[in-house]
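Intended use. Records like the one below are meant for learning the mapping from a protein sequence to its folded structure. Do not use them to infer anything beyond what is encoded.
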Amino acid sequence: MDILVVYGIGEDLLGDGESLREARGNLHIMLNSLVSSGLLLKGHDERYVMMHDNVRDAAISIAHEIRNELIMSVGLGWDCKNGQN
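Structure written out for the chain above:
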């Protein structure tokens, strides 16, 4: 989960100028909300969460449309754009 704290701070999702402890607490609140709504799944222990395949596909589609980013698809390699790799 520590990597999610880093990403959350980088994306300014966990509050301004808060301590690392507060950021972790905010992250746990957000993750619990996402798990209870079915957007994330519990991992094999409390340090991990998983994303349902359908939610992941939707997130990739949204990221591609909004940011025009290329994202690697698991098992499929890089998406091709205009016939290029």
